[in-house]
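Hi R.,

As promised, here are both runs. First protein below:
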Amino acid sequence: MSRAVSLYVGAVFTYDGELCEVVQLDGVRITVRSAGDKWRTVRLAEFLTGVSAPALADERIDAALGPALAGLSEAGRAELAERSDHVREALSGYRSGTAELARPGEPRPEFDPARPMADRYAAKAAELGIAPRTVERWAQAYRTFGEAGLLDARKIVSRRTSVDPRWEDACRQVIAERVRESTPTSSALLMRVEARLEEAHGPGVVPCPPRATAYRHLARLAKGTNALRGSAKARRSIAERPKGTYGRLRATRPGEFAILDTQSLDVYAMEPVTCRWVKAELTVAQDLFTRCILALRVTPVSTKAVDVAGLLYQTVTPTVAPLEWPEQACWPYHGIPQHLVFSEDEAAAGVRLAGVPVCPPETLVVDHGKVFVSAHVISVCARLGISIQPATPKKPTDKPTVERFFRTLREGLIQHLPAYKGPDIHSRGDRVEDAAFLYLHELEDVIREWVALIYHRTRHDGLAIPEMPGLALSPNEMYETGIAKAGLLRVPRSPDLVYDFLPVHFRSLQHYGVEVGGLRYNGPALDPYRNSDSPYGGIHTGKWPIRVNPDDVRYAYFQDPADNRWHRLVWEHAPGLGTPFSADAAQHARRLALRAGDRRPDAGQALAELLARWDTGMVSDRRERRMAVRLAAERQALPMPEDAAEPVTGLPTLVALAGGEEAVHEPIRPVEDVRGDDDTDEEIFDSPDDDFYADAFEVLP
């Protein structure tokens, strides 16, 4: 059957989903009439792009012949050309198919075009030693499909197998069932397949292939699934891939989508409370358009809701770059200050902005972890006008860019750090945790500087401009491109923005102040409202909302309902401590009091005694001393307006990764020996850096 149809007046076609009849045709336009006597005149070229001939009852869609012809070998092409010559000679008397290209001696008498077609078929069959019916079938295929119709189907169809399809189906079922189990051997998997077939069909009903054939077919069926080799983690990830076409978010400008995700770091860090190694988690916010890291936070063991709130605060707030950072590590804000939103105190002259683009996201893409969809995070996003778009559970393709960042971080930085443990247990060294000497906040500083100095300045294959697809761009360059094309989004903000990110505690106001977590706070702002009910309703009717920063419980924050101004409340023991004091340290003080035999320890008394020992240098053990050092150098998740930014120290590892660039360090100042430290020799030599941290409080302001 010919694949061509004739276009003429009176012909019937399907156009725009309707059956139409051609009523007029010229060289440029065509007029058709559809059902209901509707007439349409369109250009012929436009009509031909959307028209199709009505399908006949016996018509079927044939497979494309291009792949079959392209898959022939040189010998196959020569055989096809020779067969085509024979068919053309039988049909026309000439091997070329036309008298104008006749070869010497053509036409031969037995293939003279004047002879009947049946005689020519018989002569060609006698010449080739085949049946006349075969030559007739070749001629029919040539008229319909051309030379492609003469292909030997046995050479273009995939080789058939003698393996029972039920055996292959059982293999696929067993492979799918063992996705979350430990990796088996091929023999164990085949034994399970045989047991499955006997259970379903009976013994000996389904024949099993020979052993070598079974191993070969099993390897073919398990290809790309990690069922027989590879990591179990990758096998689970492969099984969770979408079965259809991958979809993706498409950002058109910076700040449109911010991707949030948490990943366990493949490196051990030092836990400041117990002085032992601990696993660390990294939570990041990444801009989808530029691939810039908007904010990051390193936490021990697991991420809390307040850490995510602090991450959001970093995302929408510019920070001051540490003086130790090289100039090239700065984000590209210079020259376009009109697109940035600052507070007046942050826009002071001479202040260099660090790597948090002031481009608050319109949409956050998060996973379904409780810390991301907690009431605290949802309320903060609602206040800022940010919509939350959850990613599909167990579908890493919803956040491919941030997943790729975690891999880049591991390969570009983490594997060069001490106490690197590798991506899996098979890659882990011997006693790598003993090399952990970076505290969690130091590890965060290293990652933050690496992102600013290296990652944001490295060209990414995934960043491209549609107008220039071959141009490789870095996140910084993509950021500049986005600003030039769309500009930055402006959102209203004020210095009081940070209070929205603090967790809320509803308490009653007493004559002595307010008590949160066993700590009493007081301040002049409470005077008009002591022993009175709040105007707030709901399940906390009559109680007042008090906000406390878990990283620094020395202060609580109260918003006056009369003028909506914020006021700081001071913890009664805060004057005895000049450094931030976290809620974890408060719990540690209570545990120390319980250990000393006090069944009902007073929180204030226990903390007062602990602070007194820390301030005088009389630390009772290494755990308390390490806690003191940690509190002295702790980076808060939510920096409050009263707190100054803490400088970040450049580490030698980053200098080496950056190609030998020298970092700027403050001059080293001699310090006096610490008095009152009663460490034993075993404690001193157990950790090589004890002497360094023992005098940490001597150099603190």
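And here is the second one, sequence first, then its structure tokens:
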Amino acid sequence: MNIIKNHPTLFSFWGFTLLMLTAISTALFSESQFNDQFAYSTMSVALIGILLSASFLAVDAIFELCNS
């Protein structure tokens, strides 16, 4: 099994993880209510993206294990 393959899903997973970390830092260090609400909505989008991309990565890993 080739783990170091360039999966677009892997890139989206790390992108959503970076988005989540950015939203968390925005929520922690913001001084206005608008930035807080924007950070919370960005966190929800990032969480959905992380969960979807992680599930796609798990399905891909299962397919690779079964086909090897």
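A quick note on the second one: Helices lie at 8-29, 33-67. Let me know what you think.

Best,
J.
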